[in-house]
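Checklist before submission:
- one chain only
- standard amino acids only
- sequence pasted in full

Submission:
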Amino acid sequence: MQYNFKWDPIKAQSNVRKHGITFEEASKVFNDPMALTIFDDNESSNDEDRWITLGQIKNQHYLVVVHTFHDTDKDILTIRLISARAATKNEIKQYKQG
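Returned file contents:
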């Protein structure tokens, strides 16, 4: 499965200012075979399902990424990034526990 990433450029700039993480960097979380993805029931709506992925990049940084999934075709999955931030100590502990 191939991934295609998209995002709002204004939101991407805001994320860098707020969290110091680019969406280009955040997209690398999806390369982590141990990443944990859960449905975000609190932020999802009738129009859009939101997901939260916790993963590691560069074998050292842990990130939490909020996103949506959109099927483009059978071989490509489009992921729209909404926000990304550093994981908390509790989230890192959850990641390590699997």
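Reviewer check: The chain has one domain: 2-97.
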